[in-house]
Amino acid sequence: MTSKPYQTTNKRSPLQRLLNYGQNYRSQIYQASTYSIINTILDLAPPWLIGVAVDILVQQQNSFIGKLGIRDVLWQFALLSLITVIVWVFESLSQYAYDRLWRNLAQNIQHNLRLDAYNHLQHLESAYFEDSSTGGLMSILSDDINQLEDFLNGGANEIIQVTTSFIILIGGALFILPPSITIAAMLPMPFILWGSLVYQRRLEPRYADVREKVSFLNSRLANNISGISTIKSYTAENYESARLANESEAYKKSNAKAIKLSAAFIPVIRMLVLVGFTALLFLGGMAAYAGRISIGNYSVLLVLVQRLLWPLVFLGETFDRYQRAMASTKRVMDLLDTPIQITTGDIPLFVEKVRGEVEYKNVTFAYQNRETIIKNLSLHIPAGKTIAIVGSTGSGKSTLVKLLLRFYDTSNGVITIDGIDIQKLNLSDLRRSIGLVSQDVFLFHGTVAENIAYGTFDATDEAIINAAKIAEAHDFIMRLPQGYETIVGERGQKLSGGQRQRIAIARAVVKNPPILILDEATSAVDNETEAAIQRSLDKITINRTTIAIAHRLSTIRNSHCICVMDNGQIVEQGTHEELLALDGIYAGFWHVQTGVH
Protein backbone atom coordinates (compact mmCIF):
# COMPACT_ATOMS: atom_id res chain seq x y z
CA MET A 1 0.00 0.00 0.00
CA THR A 2 2.38 2.68 -1.26
CA SER A 3 1.23 6.26 -1.54
CA LYS A 4 1.15 8.01 -4.89
CA PRO A 5 4.37 10.03 -4.47
CA TYR A 6 6.29 6.76 -4.51
CA GLN A 7 4.58 5.15 -7.49
CA THR A 8 6.90 4.93 -10.46
CA THR A 9 6.00 6.16 -13.94
CA ASN A 10 7.97 3.62 -15.94
CA LYS A 11 6.24 3.31 -19.32
CA ARG A 12 7.81 0.01 -20.35
CA SER A 13 5.73 -3.15 -20.16
CA PRO A 14 6.35 -5.53 -17.24
CA LEU A 15 7.75 -8.11 -19.71
CA GLN A 16 10.26 -5.59 -21.12
CA ARG A 17 11.34 -4.66 -17.61
CA LEU A 18 11.68 -8.31 -16.66
CA LEU A 19 13.73 -9.12 -19.77
CA ASN A 20 15.95 -6.13 -19.09
CA TYR A 21 16.46 -7.37 -15.52
CA GLY A 22 17.11 -10.90 -16.79
CA GLN A 23 20.00 -9.97 -19.09
CA ASN A 24 22.40 -11.78 -16.77
CA TYR A 25 20.46 -14.99 -17.40
CA ARG A 26 20.59 -14.85 -21.20
CA SER A 27 22.75 -17.96 -21.47
CA GLN A 28 20.35 -19.99 -19.32
CA ILE A 29 17.34 -18.64 -21.21
CA TYR A 30 18.89 -19.55 -24.59
CA GLN A 31 19.78 -23.04 -23.39
CA ALA A 32 16.35 -23.69 -21.92
CA SER A 33 14.61 -22.32 -25.04
CA THR A 34 16.81 -24.46 -27.32
CA TYR A 35 15.92 -27.64 -25.46
CA SER A 36 12.23 -26.66 -25.50
CA ILE A 37 12.37 -26.29 -29.28
CA ILE A 38 14.28 -29.58 -29.72
CA ASN A 39 11.76 -31.35 -27.50
CA THR A 40 8.84 -29.94 -29.52
CA ILE A 41 10.37 -31.12 -32.79
CA LEU A 42 10.95 -34.58 -31.37
CA ASP A 43 7.48 -34.57 -29.83
CA LEU A 44 6.00 -34.00 -33.29
CA ALA A 45 7.96 -36.92 -34.76
CA PRO A 46 5.53 -39.70 -33.63
CA PRO A 47 2.76 -38.45 -35.99
CA TRP A 48 5.27 -38.59 -38.83
CA LEU A 49 6.29 -42.11 -37.74
CA ILE A 50 2.63 -43.13 -37.77
CA GLY A 51 2.29 -41.74 -41.27
CA VAL A 52 5.38 -43.68 -42.40
CA ALA A 53 3.94 -46.88 -40.86
CA VAL A 54 0.67 -46.36 -42.74
CA ASP A 55 2.69 -45.64 -45.88
CA ILE A 56 4.59 -48.96 -45.48
CA LEU A 57 1.34 -50.89 -45.11
CA VAL A 58 -0.30 -49.22 -48.09
CA GLN A 59 2.66 -48.76 -50.45
CA GLN A 60 4.91 -51.58 -49.20
CA GLN A 61 7.98 -51.67 -51.52
CA ASN A 62 7.01 -48.25 -52.91
CA SER A 63 6.82 -46.64 -49.47
CA PHE A 64 8.97 -43.70 -48.36
CA ILE A 65 11.51 -46.06 -46.74
CA GLY A 66 11.26 -48.45 -49.67
CA LYS A 67 12.37 -45.69 -52.00
CA LEU A 68 15.49 -45.31 -49.85
CA GLY A 69 16.56 -48.84 -50.89
CA ILE A 70 15.07 -51.02 -48.14
CA ARG A 71 12.45 -53.02 -50.03
CA ASP A 72 11.62 -55.70 -47.46
CA VAL A 73 8.62 -54.66 -45.31
CA LEU A 74 10.13 -56.44 -42.27
CA TRP A 75 13.34 -54.40 -42.44
CA GLN A 76 11.34 -51.25 -43.12
CA PHE A 77 9.43 -51.74 -39.86
CA ALA A 78 12.67 -52.70 -38.08
CA LEU A 79 14.29 -49.43 -39.19
CA LEU A 80 11.14 -47.50 -38.28
CA SER A 81 11.18 -49.10 -34.82
CA LEU A 82 14.84 -48.16 -34.31
CA ILE A 83 14.13 -44.54 -35.31
CA THR A 84 11.17 -44.52 -32.92
CA VAL A 85 13.35 -45.69 -30.01
CA ILE A 86 15.99 -43.04 -30.80
CA VAL A 87 13.37 -40.28 -31.08
CA TRP A 88 11.69 -41.21 -27.80
CA VAL A 89 15.00 -41.47 -25.93
CA PHE A 90 16.18 -38.05 -27.11
CA GLU A 91 12.72 -36.59 -26.53
CA SER A 92 12.89 -37.76 -22.91
CA LEU A 93 16.42 -36.40 -22.49
CA SER A 94 15.47 -33.02 -23.98
CA GLN A 95 12.43 -32.84 -21.71
CA TYR A 96 14.63 -33.51 -18.69
CA ALA A 97 17.05 -30.83 -19.89
CA TYR A 98 14.50 -28.07 -20.53
CA ASP A 99 12.51 -28.86 -17.39
CA ARG A 100 15.63 -28.71 -15.25
CA LEU A 101 16.91 -25.54 -16.93
CA TRP A 102 13.61 -23.65 -16.75
CA ARG A 103 12.98 -24.59 -13.14
CA ASN A 104 16.53 -23.72 -12.08
CA LEU A 105 16.22 -20.45 -14.01
CA ALA A 106 12.99 -19.73 -12.13
CA GLN A 107 14.70 -20.43 -8.82
CA ASN A 108 17.72 -18.28 -9.69
CA ILE A 109 15.63 -15.31 -10.84
CA GLN A 110 13.29 -15.69 -7.87
CA HIS A 111 16.22 -15.82 -5.43
CA ASN A 112 18.13 -12.91 -6.92
CA LEU A 113 15.06 -10.77 -7.55
CA ARG A 114 13.94 -11.17 -3.95
CA LEU A 115 17.42 -10.28 -2.67
CA ASP A 116 17.73 -7.30 -5.03
CA ALA A 117 14.28 -6.03 -4.05
CA TYR A 118 15.02 -6.46 -0.35
CA ASN A 119 18.45 -4.82 -0.60
CA HIS A 120 16.93 -1.91 -2.53
CA LEU A 121 14.21 -1.66 0.10
CA GLN A 122 16.81 -1.40 2.87
CA HIS A 123 18.31 1.68 1.21
CA LEU A 124 15.03 3.57 0.84
CA GLU A 125 14.49 6.49 3.19
CA SER A 126 12.27 6.29 6.27
CA ALA A 127 9.52 8.30 4.58
CA TYR A 128 8.93 5.42 2.17
CA PHE A 129 8.20 3.03 5.02
CA GLU A 130 5.88 5.53 6.66
CA ASP A 131 3.83 5.58 3.45
CA SER A 132 3.94 1.79 2.97
CA SER A 133 2.50 -1.11 4.90
CA THR A 134 4.56 -4.03 6.15
CA GLY A 135 2.02 -6.49 4.76
CA GLY A 136 2.10 -4.84 1.34
CA LEU A 137 5.88 -5.01 1.16
CA MET A 138 5.80 -8.61 2.37
CA SER A 139 3.30 -9.38 -0.40
CA ILE A 140 5.73 -8.02 -3.02
CA LEU A 141 8.78 -9.84 -1.63
CA SER A 142 6.92 -13.12 -1.20
CA ASP A 143 3.67 -13.62 -3.15
CA ASP A 144 4.50 -11.53 -6.21
CA ILE A 145 7.93 -13.04 -6.73
CA ASN A 146 6.42 -16.52 -6.27
CA GLN A 147 3.91 -15.75 -9.05
CA LEU A 148 6.81 -15.03 -11.38
CA GLU A 149 8.48 -18.28 -10.38
CA ASP A 150 5.28 -20.19 -11.19
CA PHE A 151 5.19 -18.77 -14.71
CA LEU A 152 8.88 -19.43 -15.42
CA ASN A 153 8.52 -22.99 -14.16
CA GLY A 154 6.16 -23.93 -16.98
CA GLY A 155 4.47 -21.06 -18.77
CA ALA A 156 7.48 -19.83 -20.75
CA ASN A 157 8.19 -23.34 -22.02
CA GLU A 158 4.56 -23.81 -23.08
CA ILE A 159 4.59 -20.62 -25.15
CA ILE A 160 7.83 -21.63 -26.91
CA GLN A 161 6.53 -25.13 -27.64
CA VAL A 162 3.18 -23.94 -29.01
CA THR A 163 4.99 -21.40 -31.25
CA THR A 164 7.41 -24.05 -32.53
CA SER A 165 4.55 -26.49 -33.21
CA PHE A 166 2.68 -23.82 -35.12
CA ILE A 167 5.68 -23.04 -37.36
CA ILE A 168 6.29 -26.74 -38.06
CA LEU A 169 2.63 -27.38 -38.82
CA ILE A 170 2.37 -24.44 -41.20
CA GLY A 171 5.54 -25.56 -42.98
CA GLY A 172 4.36 -29.16 -43.18
CA ALA A 173 0.87 -28.25 -44.38
CA LEU A 174 2.18 -25.94 -47.11
CA PHE A 175 4.56 -28.66 -48.28
CA ILE A 176 2.00 -31.50 -48.29
CA LEU A 177 -1.51 -30.07 -48.75
CA PRO A 178 -3.05 -28.19 -51.65
CA PRO A 179 -3.28 -24.44 -50.86
CA SER A 180 -7.08 -24.47 -50.59
CA ILE A 181 -7.05 -27.12 -47.85
CA THR A 182 -4.19 -25.39 -45.99
CA ILE A 183 -6.13 -22.11 -45.96
CA ALA A 184 -9.30 -23.85 -44.72
CA ALA A 185 -7.43 -25.69 -41.96
CA MET A 186 -5.55 -22.59 -40.83
CA LEU A 187 -8.52 -20.23 -41.12
CA PRO A 188 -9.21 -20.16 -37.34
CA MET A 189 -5.57 -19.36 -36.46
CA PRO A 190 -5.72 -15.54 -36.92
CA PHE A 191 -8.90 -15.44 -34.83
CA ILE A 192 -7.29 -17.56 -32.12
CA LEU A 193 -4.22 -15.31 -31.97
CA TRP A 194 -6.30 -12.12 -32.13
CA GLY A 195 -8.61 -13.43 -29.42
CA SER A 196 -5.64 -14.35 -27.25
CA LEU A 197 -4.18 -10.83 -27.49
CA VAL A 198 -7.53 -9.19 -26.73
CA TYR A 199 -8.02 -11.58 -23.84
CA GLN A 200 -4.55 -10.74 -22.53
CA ARG A 201 -5.15 -6.98 -22.65
CA ARG A 202 -8.52 -7.25 -20.91
CA LEU A 203 -7.18 -9.60 -18.26
CA GLU A 204 -4.14 -7.45 -17.39
CA PRO A 205 -5.94 -4.74 -15.34
CA ARG A 206 -8.03 -7.37 -13.57
CA TYR A 207 -4.99 -9.21 -12.29
CA ALA A 208 -3.33 -5.92 -11.35
CA ASP A 209 -6.37 -5.28 -9.16
CA VAL A 210 -6.11 -8.81 -7.71
CA ARG A 211 -2.47 -8.20 -6.68
CA GLU A 212 -3.44 -4.87 -5.11
CA LYS A 213 -6.27 -6.47 -3.14
CA VAL A 214 -4.09 -9.30 -1.85
CA SER A 215 -1.58 -6.67 -0.75
CA PHE A 216 -4.29 -4.94 1.30
CA LEU A 217 -5.33 -8.30 2.76
CA ASN A 218 -1.77 -9.16 3.75
CA SER A 219 -1.37 -5.71 5.28
CA ARG A 220 -4.43 -6.26 7.44
CA LEU A 221 -3.20 -9.69 8.55
CA ALA A 222 0.30 -8.45 9.38
CA ASN A 223 -1.07 -5.46 11.26
CA ASN A 224 -3.52 -7.53 13.28
CA ILE A 225 -1.01 -10.22 14.21
CA SER A 226 1.43 -7.54 15.38
CA GLY A 227 -1.30 -5.90 17.45
CA ILE A 228 -2.93 -9.04 18.81
CA SER A 229 -2.41 -7.96 22.44
CA THR A 230 -4.23 -4.68 21.80
CA ILE A 231 -7.03 -6.51 20.01
CA LYS A 232 -7.46 -8.86 22.95
CA SER A 233 -7.26 -6.16 25.61
CA TYR A 234 -9.97 -4.11 23.91
CA THR A 235 -12.06 -7.23 23.08
CA ALA A 236 -11.99 -6.14 19.45
CA GLU A 237 -11.85 -9.67 18.00
CA ASN A 238 -15.24 -9.43 16.29
CA TYR A 239 -14.48 -5.95 14.96
CA GLU A 240 -11.17 -7.08 13.46
CA SER A 241 -12.74 -10.25 12.08
CA ALA A 242 -15.29 -8.06 10.28
CA ARG A 243 -12.54 -5.79 8.90
CA LEU A 244 -10.57 -8.80 7.71
CA ALA A 245 -13.72 -10.25 6.16
CA ASN A 246 -14.16 -7.01 4.18
CA GLU A 247 -10.60 -7.18 2.84
CA SER A 248 -10.97 -10.88 2.02
CA GLU A 249 -14.33 -10.23 0.34
CA ALA A 250 -12.77 -7.51 -1.81
CA TYR A 251 -9.98 -9.92 -2.80
CA LYS A 252 -12.55 -12.62 -3.59
CA LYS A 253 -14.62 -10.26 -5.77
CA SER A 254 -11.52 -9.05 -7.60
CA ASN A 255 -10.54 -12.64 -8.32
CA ALA A 256 -14.10 -13.41 -9.44
CA LYS A 257 -13.89 -10.68 -12.10
CA ALA A 258 -10.65 -12.16 -13.43
CA ILE A 259 -12.04 -15.70 -13.30
CA LYS A 260 -15.18 -14.66 -15.18
CA LEU A 261 -13.06 -13.54 -18.13
CA SER A 262 -10.41 -16.25 -18.01
CA ALA A 263 -12.97 -19.08 -17.75
CA ALA A 264 -14.63 -17.94 -21.00
CA PHE A 265 -11.45 -18.20 -23.06
CA ILE A 266 -11.12 -21.98 -23.37
CA PRO A 267 -14.71 -22.71 -24.56
CA VAL A 268 -14.47 -19.99 -27.24
CA ILE A 269 -11.08 -21.18 -28.48
CA ARG A 270 -12.34 -24.78 -28.47
CA MET A 271 -15.02 -23.85 -31.01
CA LEU A 272 -12.47 -22.14 -33.26
CA VAL A 273 -10.19 -25.17 -33.03
CA LEU A 274 -13.14 -27.36 -34.02
CA VAL A 275 -13.58 -25.37 -37.24
CA GLY A 276 -9.96 -25.91 -38.32
CA PHE A 277 -9.84 -29.56 -37.36
CA THR A 278 -13.16 -30.35 -39.06
CA ALA A 279 -12.06 -28.54 -42.23
CA LEU A 280 -8.88 -30.62 -42.42
CA LEU A 281 -10.73 -33.82 -41.54
CA PHE A 282 -13.27 -33.35 -44.35
CA LEU A 283 -11.29 -31.58 -47.07
CA GLY A 284 -8.08 -33.51 -46.41
CA GLY A 285 -10.02 -36.79 -46.41
CA MET A 286 -11.58 -35.99 -49.76
CA ALA A 287 -8.14 -35.05 -51.15
CA ALA A 288 -6.71 -38.37 -49.96
CA TYR A 289 -9.67 -40.23 -51.43
CA ALA A 290 -9.10 -38.48 -54.75
CA GLY A 291 -5.40 -39.38 -54.63
CA ARG A 292 -4.16 -35.79 -54.43
CA ILE A 293 -2.30 -36.59 -51.17
CA SER A 294 -1.19 -39.93 -49.76
CA ILE A 295 -3.06 -41.64 -46.95
CA GLY A 296 0.13 -41.52 -44.88
CA ASN A 297 0.47 -37.75 -45.27
CA TYR A 298 -3.23 -37.33 -44.46
CA SER A 299 -2.70 -39.33 -41.26
CA VAL A 300 0.33 -37.25 -40.31
CA LEU A 301 -1.52 -33.96 -40.79
CA LEU A 302 -4.57 -35.08 -38.82
CA VAL A 303 -2.41 -35.93 -35.83
CA LEU A 304 -0.19 -32.85 -36.21
CA VAL A 305 -3.16 -30.49 -36.39
CA GLN A 306 -4.66 -32.16 -33.36
CA ARG A 307 -1.32 -31.87 -31.56
CA LEU A 308 -1.16 -28.12 -32.28
CA LEU A 309 -4.74 -26.95 -32.17
CA TRP A 310 -5.75 -28.65 -28.95
CA PRO A 311 -2.83 -27.15 -26.99
CA LEU A 312 -4.16 -23.79 -28.17
CA VAL A 313 -7.26 -24.57 -26.13
CA PHE A 314 -5.11 -24.57 -23.02
CA LEU A 315 -3.21 -21.49 -24.12
CA GLY A 316 -5.73 -19.58 -22.04
CA GLU A 317 -4.32 -21.14 -18.89
CA THR A 318 -0.82 -20.15 -19.99
CA PHE A 319 -1.96 -16.58 -20.65
CA ASP A 320 -3.68 -16.62 -17.28
CA ARG A 321 -0.39 -17.54 -15.57
CA TYR A 322 1.41 -15.00 -17.74
CA GLN A 323 -0.90 -12.16 -16.72
CA ARG A 324 -0.66 -13.08 -13.05
CA ALA A 325 3.12 -13.08 -13.40
CA MET A 326 3.19 -9.74 -15.25
CA ALA A 327 0.91 -8.08 -12.67
CA SER A 328 3.30 -9.27 -9.97
CA THR A 329 6.37 -8.33 -12.02
CA LYS A 330 5.10 -4.76 -12.32
CA ARG A 331 4.83 -4.46 -8.54
CA VAL A 332 8.31 -5.88 -7.99
CA MET A 333 9.86 -3.71 -10.69
CA ASP A 334 8.07 -0.63 -9.34
CA LEU A 335 9.76 -1.31 -6.02
CA LEU A 336 13.15 -1.72 -7.70
CA ASP A 337 12.57 1.49 -9.68
CA THR A 338 11.69 3.52 -6.58
CA PRO A 339 14.45 6.15 -6.42
CA ILE A 340 16.75 6.17 -3.40
CA GLN A 341 16.49 9.67 -1.95
CA ILE A 342 19.17 9.34 0.75
CA THR A 343 22.43 8.81 -1.15
CA THR A 344 25.85 8.24 0.37
CA GLY A 345 28.61 10.82 0.30
CA ASP A 346 32.20 10.26 -0.84
CA ILE A 347 34.16 11.28 2.24
CA PRO A 348 35.15 8.35 4.49
CA LEU A 349 34.71 8.71 8.24
CA PHE A 350 37.02 6.59 10.38
CA VAL A 351 35.17 5.78 13.60
CA GLU A 352 38.30 5.62 15.75
CA LYS A 353 39.25 9.17 14.67
CA VAL A 354 35.86 10.83 15.21
CA ARG A 355 35.97 13.46 17.98
CA GLY A 356 32.19 13.80 18.02
CA GLU A 357 31.64 17.53 17.60
CA VAL A 358 28.11 17.98 16.18
CA GLU A 359 26.61 21.17 14.84
CA TYR A 360 23.21 22.05 13.39
CA LYS A 361 23.44 25.19 11.25
CA ASN A 362 20.17 26.96 10.36
CA VAL A 363 18.39 23.63 9.90
CA THR A 364 14.82 23.57 8.59
CA PHE A 365 12.84 20.39 7.97
CA ALA A 366 9.30 19.27 7.18
CA TYR A 367 7.96 15.76 6.77
CA GLN A 368 6.33 15.07 3.42
CA ASN A 369 2.96 16.83 3.02
CA ARG A 370 3.17 18.19 6.57
CA GLU A 371 3.95 21.50 8.21
CA THR A 372 7.53 22.50 8.99
CA ILE A 373 8.63 20.86 12.24
CA ILE A 374 12.22 22.22 12.56
CA LYS A 375 12.54 25.93 11.88
CA ASN A 376 15.93 27.52 11.20
CA LEU A 377 17.49 25.74 14.19
CA SER A 378 21.14 26.11 15.16
CA LEU A 379 22.83 24.03 17.85
CA HIS A 380 26.46 23.34 18.73
CA ILE A 381 27.34 20.13 20.64
CA PRO A 382 30.98 20.05 21.78
CA ALA A 383 32.90 16.79 21.47
CA GLY A 384 32.68 14.56 24.54
CA LYS A 385 29.85 16.53 26.17
CA THR A 386 26.34 15.44 27.12
CA ILE A 387 23.56 17.59 25.71
CA ALA A 388 19.96 17.01 26.77
CA ILE A 389 16.97 18.00 24.67
CA VAL A 390 13.58 18.39 26.31
CA GLY A 391 10.24 19.72 25.17
CA SER A 392 6.61 18.86 24.79
CA THR A 393 5.45 16.09 22.46
CA GLY A 394 5.71 17.13 18.81
CA SER A 395 8.24 19.87 19.41
CA GLY A 396 10.78 18.17 17.09
CA LYS A 397 13.17 16.47 19.55
CA SER A 398 13.29 13.03 17.91
CA THR A 399 13.38 14.62 14.46
CA LEU A 400 16.78 16.13 15.28
CA VAL A 401 18.08 12.60 15.91
CA LYS A 402 16.61 11.26 12.66
CA LEU A 403 18.27 14.09 10.74
CA LEU A 404 21.65 13.35 12.34
CA LEU A 405 21.38 9.68 11.36
CA ARG A 406 20.21 10.76 7.89
CA PHE A 407 16.97 8.84 8.11
CA TYR A 408 15.81 12.07 6.48
CA ASP A 409 17.73 14.94 4.89
CA THR A 410 17.25 18.53 5.88
CA SER A 411 15.06 20.82 3.77
CA ASN A 412 17.51 23.65 4.38
CA GLY A 413 20.64 24.12 6.44
CA VAL A 414 23.59 21.86 7.24
CA ILE A 415 24.48 19.32 9.93
CA THR A 416 28.18 18.66 10.50
CA ILE A 417 30.28 16.15 12.42
CA ASP A 418 33.78 17.40 13.19
CA GLY A 419 33.15 20.22 10.73
CA ILE A 420 32.16 17.97 7.78
CA ASP A 421 28.69 18.13 6.21
CA ILE A 422 27.10 14.74 6.99
CA GLN A 423 25.59 14.59 3.47
CA LYS A 424 29.17 14.45 2.12
CA LEU A 425 30.16 11.59 4.45
CA ASN A 426 29.99 7.92 3.58
CA LEU A 427 26.56 6.93 4.89
CA SER A 428 27.65 3.62 6.44
CA ASP A 429 30.60 5.31 8.18
CA LEU A 430 28.28 8.01 9.53
CA ARG A 431 25.87 5.53 11.06
CA ARG A 432 28.68 3.35 12.41
CA SER A 433 29.84 6.41 14.33
CA ILE A 434 26.49 6.83 16.07
CA GLY A 435 24.88 4.55 18.65
CA LEU A 436 21.11 4.81 19.11
CA VAL A 437 19.21 3.64 22.20
CA SER A 438 15.53 4.47 21.78
CA GLN A 439 12.42 3.86 23.82
CA ASP A 440 11.10 1.54 21.09
CA VAL A 441 13.69 -1.24 21.43
CA PHE A 442 13.70 -3.77 18.62
CA LEU A 443 15.19 -7.19 19.37
CA PHE A 444 15.52 -9.81 16.66
CA HIS A 445 14.39 -13.38 17.02
CA GLY A 446 17.57 -15.05 18.25
CA THR A 447 19.67 -15.39 21.38
CA VAL A 448 20.44 -12.72 23.94
CA ALA A 449 24.10 -12.81 22.88
CA GLU A 450 23.22 -12.35 19.19
CA ASN A 451 21.09 -9.33 20.03
CA ILE A 452 23.80 -7.70 22.13
CA ALA A 453 26.36 -8.25 19.37
CA TYR A 454 23.99 -7.09 16.63
CA GLY A 455 25.83 -4.68 14.34
CA THR A 456 29.19 -5.73 15.78
CA PHE A 457 29.00 -9.25 14.50
CA ASP A 458 32.60 -10.16 15.32
CA ALA A 459 32.21 -9.28 19.01
CA THR A 460 33.81 -11.81 21.38
CA ASP A 461 31.93 -13.54 24.21
CA GLU A 462 34.06 -11.56 26.64
CA ALA A 463 33.05 -8.25 25.04
CA ILE A 464 29.38 -9.27 25.08
CA ILE A 465 29.45 -10.21 28.77
CA ASN A 466 31.38 -7.08 29.70
CA ALA A 467 28.85 -4.92 27.86
CA ALA A 468 26.01 -6.69 29.65
CA LYS A 469 27.63 -5.99 33.01
CA ILE A 470 28.05 -2.29 32.20
CA ALA A 471 24.36 -2.21 31.18
CA GLU A 472 23.47 -4.02 34.44
CA ALA A 473 21.92 -6.79 32.38
CA HIS A 474 24.28 -9.64 33.27
CA ASP A 475 22.47 -10.73 36.43
CA PHE A 476 19.03 -11.11 34.87
CA ILE A 477 20.52 -12.75 31.77
CA MET A 478 22.16 -15.41 33.94
CA ARG A 479 18.77 -16.14 35.50
CA LEU A 480 17.25 -16.88 32.09
CA PRO A 481 16.81 -20.59 31.16
CA GLN A 482 19.83 -20.74 28.83
CA GLY A 483 21.61 -17.57 29.93
CA TYR A 484 23.12 -15.73 26.99
CA GLU A 485 21.85 -18.47 24.63
CA THR A 486 18.20 -17.89 25.59
CA ILE A 487 15.94 -17.17 22.60
CA VAL A 488 14.26 -13.79 23.16
CA GLY A 489 11.36 -14.38 20.75
CA GLU A 490 10.09 -12.15 17.96
CA ARG A 491 10.72 -8.48 18.86
CA GLY A 492 12.05 -9.73 22.23
CA GLN A 493 8.54 -10.55 23.47
CA LYS A 494 9.85 -13.08 26.02
CA LEU A 495 11.59 -10.27 27.93
CA SER A 496 10.22 -7.37 29.93
CA GLY A 497 10.48 -3.78 28.71
CA GLY A 498 13.28 -3.00 31.16
CA GLN A 499 15.20 -6.12 30.16
CA ARG A 500 14.92 -5.21 26.49
CA GLN A 501 16.08 -1.70 27.26
CA ARG A 502 19.20 -2.91 29.07
CA ILE A 503 20.06 -5.28 26.21
CA ALA A 504 19.78 -2.31 23.86
CA ILE A 505 22.21 -0.37 26.04
CA ALA A 506 24.59 -3.36 26.06
CA ARG A 507 24.35 -3.39 22.27
CA ALA A 508 25.44 0.26 22.19
CA VAL A 509 28.31 -0.50 24.60
CA VAL A 510 29.61 -3.25 22.29
CA LYS A 511 29.37 -0.91 19.31
CA ASN A 512 31.35 1.73 21.26
CA PRO A 513 30.39 4.69 19.05
CA PRO A 514 31.94 8.14 19.48
CA ILE A 515 28.44 9.66 19.41
CA LEU A 516 25.62 8.22 21.53
CA ILE A 517 21.93 9.09 21.19
CA LEU A 518 19.52 8.28 24.02
CA ASP A 519 15.97 8.80 22.79
CA GLU A 520 13.65 8.43 25.81
CA ALA A 521 15.78 5.46 26.91
CA THR A 522 14.14 5.25 30.36
CA SER A 523 10.60 6.42 29.59
CA ALA A 524 8.87 3.04 29.70
CA VAL A 525 10.42 1.42 32.78
CA ASP A 526 9.78 1.41 36.52
CA ASN A 527 11.78 3.50 38.99
CA GLU A 528 14.09 0.65 40.04
CA THR A 529 14.89 -0.25 36.42
CA GLU A 530 15.32 3.42 35.61
CA ALA A 531 17.88 3.76 38.38
CA ALA A 532 19.78 0.73 37.04
CA ILE A 533 19.68 2.08 33.50
CA GLN A 534 20.76 5.50 34.67
CA ARG A 535 23.81 4.03 36.40
CA SER A 536 24.69 2.30 33.12
CA LEU A 537 24.27 5.50 31.14
CA ASP A 538 26.45 7.42 33.58
CA LYS A 539 29.26 4.97 32.79
CA ILE A 540 28.97 4.87 29.01
CA THR A 541 28.54 8.62 28.46
CA ILE A 542 31.90 9.54 30.00
CA ASN A 543 34.08 11.34 27.39
CA ARG A 544 31.54 10.52 24.70
CA THR A 545 29.38 12.97 22.79
CA THR A 546 25.87 12.21 24.03
CA ILE A 547 22.51 13.55 22.93
CA ALA A 548 19.84 12.63 25.47
CA ILE A 549 16.16 13.19 24.72
CA ALA A 550 14.00 12.80 27.79
CA HIS A 551 10.69 13.60 29.39
CA ARG A 552 11.89 12.60 32.87
CA LEU A 553 14.00 15.61 33.74
CA SER A 554 15.61 13.82 36.69
CA THR A 555 17.56 11.66 34.23
CA ILE A 556 19.21 14.61 32.48
CA ARG A 557 19.64 17.20 35.21
CA ASN A 558 23.41 16.62 35.30
CA SER A 559 23.91 17.18 31.57
CA HIS A 560 26.50 19.75 30.50
CA CYS A 561 23.77 21.64 28.71
CA ILE A 562 19.98 21.30 28.45
CA CYS A 563 18.14 22.60 25.39
CA VAL A 564 14.41 23.26 25.54
CA MET A 565 12.54 22.90 22.24
CA ASP A 566 9.20 24.42 21.40
CA ASN A 567 7.52 24.66 18.02
CA GLY A 568 10.63 23.47 16.17
CA GLN A 569 13.08 25.89 17.77
CA ILE A 570 15.39 25.99 20.76
CA VAL A 571 13.84 28.53 23.09
CA GLU A 572 15.92 27.94 26.24
CA GLN A 573 19.45 26.66 26.77
CA GLY A 574 21.68 26.20 29.84
CA THR A 575 22.43 23.99 32.82
CA HIS A 576 19.72 22.66 35.10
CA GLU A 577 20.31 25.38 37.68
CA GLU A 578 20.45 28.12 35.05
CA LEU A 579 17.16 27.05 33.52
CA LEU A 580 15.44 26.85 36.88
CA ALA A 581 16.66 30.36 37.62
CA LEU A 582 15.27 31.50 34.27
CA ASP A 583 11.83 30.37 35.47
CA GLY A 584 10.63 29.61 31.95
CA ILE A 585 9.35 26.51 30.15
CA TYR A 586 11.94 24.16 31.69
CA ALA A 587 11.19 25.39 35.19
CA GLY A 588 7.51 24.74 34.50
CA PHE A 589 8.25 21.17 33.44
CA TRP A 590 10.39 20.64 36.54
CA HIS A 591 7.75 21.97 38.90
CA VAL A 592 5.08 19.74 37.36
CA GLN A 593 7.25 16.60 37.65
CA THR A 594 8.60 17.27 41.14
CA GLY A 595 5.67 19.09 42.67
CA VAL A 596 8.08 21.73 43.95
CA HIS A 597 7.20 25.38 43.32
Q: Can you describe what's shown?
A:
By secondary structure, the protein is of the alpha/beta class. The chain has 3 domains: 14-337, ABC transporter transmembrane region fold (Up-down Bundle), CATH 1.20.1560.10; 345-433 and 515-525 and 544-597, Rossmann fold (3-Layer(aba) Sandwich); 439-512, P-loop containing nucleotide triphosphate hydrolases (Rossmann fold). The chain contains 21 helices and 10 strands. The strands form 2 sheets. Strands 6-7-8-3-9-10 form a 6-stranded mixed beta sheet, sandwiched between helices. The protein has a 4-stranded antiparallel beta sheet with strand order 2-1-4-5, covered by helices on one side. It is elongated, with a radius of gyration of 36 Å.
Key phrases:
alpha/beta; 6-stranded mixed sheet; Rossmann fold; 597 residues; 4-stranded antiparallel sheet; ABC transporter transmembrane region fold
Topology:
Elements lengths: L13 H8 L4 H18 L1 H15 L13 H50 L3 H5 L3 H43 L2 H8 L1 H39 L1 H6 L3 H53 L5 H19 L1 H23 L20 E9 L5 E10 L4 E6 L5 H8 L7 E6 L2 E2 L5 H6 L1 E5 L9 H5 L8 H10 L3 H5 L18 H15 L3 E5 L7 H14 L4 E5 L11 E6 L2 E6 L1 H7 L2 H10 L3
Parallel strand pairs: 3-8, 3-9, 6-7, 7-8
Antiparallel strand pairs: 1-2, 1-4, 4-5, 9-10
Helix pairs in contact: 1-12, 2-4, 2-6, 3-4, 3-11, 4-6, 4-12, 6-8, 6-11, 6-12, 7-10, 8-10, 8-12, 10-11, 10-12, 16-18, 18-19
